[in-house]
Backbone:
């Protein structure tokens, strides 16, 4: 019976062959590169490893010709191809953009699939803007087509952070017009335009007006427009001022669009870009429906929610949690109303399907989760009406296994958790007797929990998120009433600072982050709510956004970066349809902040100064007209089903007297 080959022996054999090649021993095939470089090789190995040359080598050998010219490949690339043929690897300088591109071409031309995949991995891991642009803009070769999608996504995602001064006007403008360009704020587009023009002001000043036309003026704040028209590149340029005025006038017409406007396509100035980051809300409690399996996706650029039926969970689930690891959404724990659930699922974003993962050791309703170093931590929760857990475990996506870790110091149900700087923090919750303010910190290296300074007030059903070296907590239930305020913890000073309150008090809601903006979604406030708010973590301010499609509490939410997913949900076609994607321009949005702007320092127990300072409603002052009715009523019916039976949505509501009822 034949046994498997010993990989060590095979590797040694090919290393010896490569040594013979390097010494030109027993070589019988001369390969000539396109630039004239010569390589003595072993015909049998090149014939086996390079499909494109195989037939020609066999044909020539029958004629006694052991020389072959590879005109399309230069010597530098052919040498690396030969090395890969012998060793299955090549010593490529990953920083040499030209070499990477040429080797991708060579591998594709020579039909060496394994080498092409190998170099594409190198290409993806070492990608920079210079290399990505070269591949993205190269239209002359079909041999780069497998690298083009990766390069395009990189360019669209990072262009505004690193605009090459050498990029041509035509290519720069085309990318700025692309709906898929990642621009958290249109102000970043203007910053990029300034930088490109200043690289060669004499030649590029004339390009200002057409580049200004790429700005989505409908998505900027009035104070930005004031700064724009006063900018040195604009203020004395009549054509530029006219361009801005025309864009503003056109954008204003879409604040209350006529039926005629709604029949046409959205112009650039008011067409939202496709978000790279999507926000998914799944499961939870809904008014009149109890536990559900729903799936809604939020577009934070257009401020729109949509139902995605194909993303619904296989069954109803509430009080569960969702986390993202390496672009994959994981959902664990929760309750189907009858049982605390051990099971978990993960979302295949390419096929919109949920797949099961290994079950946890415990059923966990009101579970808290966090991600740290590629692992998902499931902490505490309630396994039964009488049993709240100290038990904790972590999930390894690579092996699909759960491993028990040290128990928490106290029982935590309906708490919140986050990973920060190599540690996992668990805060608040309910222990079966009281709502807690305590916080514990887990160190994976020592497998130990440590008590840290508590919050300023007890909270269960709260939300927690880590950002810029701090922990942020908001809302929850203190045992008497639901909360709207927040606190921020600084691990370096071990202190808590009070933060601006949300516009509504809520518990069992979710918070996700996109950049410096946190999104508070749904929750419970005497009944399930659909309210969505955005928190500007730099300015310590809250903004009211478009609500969910239905009031939902105890759902799980996740924000994930996947442009292909966004394109499939928010298609280019929908971006041209005002009825689907026209943004409500009377809603105020968080402003643009430079990336290096620090978080407000505040003081212990005191809100950041002026956190309630009113901001002007966007466009009102700039576009005030008699025909525009600006009112507080946004036309949304916030009156939910008044006949819903009261349910007890927070674990801390399940006191013994409630359970006896």
Residues:
């Amino acid at each position: 019976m034949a046994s498997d080959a010993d990989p060590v022996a095979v590797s040694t054999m090919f290393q010896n062959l490569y040594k013979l090649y390097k010494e030109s021993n027993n070589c019988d095939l001369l390969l000539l590169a396109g630039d004239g470089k010569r390589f003595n090789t072993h015909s049998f190995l090149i014939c086996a490893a390079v499909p494109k040359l195989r037939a020609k080598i066999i044909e020539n050998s029958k004629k006694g010709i052991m020389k072959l010219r590879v005109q399309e490949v230069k010597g530098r690339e052919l040498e690396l191809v030969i090395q890969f043929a012998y060793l299955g690897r090549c010593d490529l300088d990953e920083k040499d953009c030209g070499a990477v591109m040429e080797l991708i071409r060579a591998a594709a031309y020579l039909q060496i699939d394994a080498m092409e995949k190998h170099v594409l991995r190198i290409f993806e891991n070492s990608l920079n803007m210079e290399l990505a642009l070269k591949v993205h803009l190269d239209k002359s070769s079909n041999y780069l087509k497998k690298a083009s999608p990766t390069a395009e996504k990189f360019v669209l995602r990072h262009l505004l952070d690193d605009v090459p001064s050498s990029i041509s006007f035509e290519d720069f403008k085309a990318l700025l017009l692309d709906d898929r360009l990642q621009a958290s704020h249109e102000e970043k587009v203007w910053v990029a335009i300034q930088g490109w023009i200043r690289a060669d002001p004499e030649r590029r000043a004339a390009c200002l007006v057409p580049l200004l036309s790429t700005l989505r003026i409908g998505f900027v704040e009035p104070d930005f427009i004031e700064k724009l028209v006063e900018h040195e590149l604009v203020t004395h340029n009549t054509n530029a001022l006219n361009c801005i005025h025309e864009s503003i006038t056109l954008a204003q017409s879409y604040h209350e669009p006529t039926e005629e406007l709604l029949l046409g396509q959205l112009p650039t100035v008011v067409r939202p870009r496709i978000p790279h980051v999507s926000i998914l809300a799944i499961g939870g409690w809904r008014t009149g429906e109890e536990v559900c399996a729903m799936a809604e996706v939020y577009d934070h650029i257009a401020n729109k929610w949509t139902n995605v039926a194909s993303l619904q969970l296989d069954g109803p689930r509430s009080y569960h949690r969702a986390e993202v690891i390496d672009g994959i959404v994981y959902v664990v724990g929760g309750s189907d109303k009858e049982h605390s659930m051990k099971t978990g699922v993960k979302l295949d974003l390419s096929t919109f399907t949920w797949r099961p993962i290994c079950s946890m050791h415990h059923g966990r309703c009101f579970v808290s989760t966090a991600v740290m170093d590629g692992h998902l931590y499931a902490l505490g929760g309630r396994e039964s009406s009488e049993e709240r857990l100290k038990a904790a475990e972590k999930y390894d996506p690579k092996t699909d296994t759960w491993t028990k870790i040290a128990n928490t110091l106290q029982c935590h149900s309906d708490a919140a958790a986050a990973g920060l700087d190599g540690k996992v923090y668990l805060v608040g919750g309910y222990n079966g007797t009281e709502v807690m303010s305590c916080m514990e910190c887990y160190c994976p290296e020592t497998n130990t929990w440590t008590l840290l300074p508590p919050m300023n007030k007890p909270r269960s059903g709260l939300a927690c998120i880590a950002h810029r070296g701090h922990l942020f907590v908001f809302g929850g239930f203190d045992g008497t009433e639901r909360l709207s305020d927040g606190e921020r913890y600084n691990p370096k000073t071990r202190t808590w600072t009070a933060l601006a309150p949300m516009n509504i008090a809520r518990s069992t809601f979710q918070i996700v982050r996109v950049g410096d903006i946190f999104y508070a979604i749904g929750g419970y406030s005497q009944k399930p709510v659909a309210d969505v708010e955005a928190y500007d973590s730099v300015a310590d301010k809250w903004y009211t956004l478009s609500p969910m499609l239905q009031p939902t509490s105890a759902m799980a939410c996740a924000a994930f970066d996947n442009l292909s997913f966004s394109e499939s949900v928010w298609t280019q076609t929908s971006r041209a349809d005002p009825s689907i994607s026209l943004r409500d321009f009377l809603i105020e949005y968080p402003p643009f902040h430079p990336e290096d702007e620090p978080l407000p320092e505040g003081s212990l127990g005191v809100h950041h100064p002026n956190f309630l300072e009113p901001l002007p409603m966007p466009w009102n002052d700039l576009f005030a007209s008699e025909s525009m009715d600006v009112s507080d009523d946004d036309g949304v019916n916030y009156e939910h089903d008044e006949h819903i039976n009261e349910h007890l949505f927070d674990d801390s509501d399940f006191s013994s007297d409630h359970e006896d009822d």
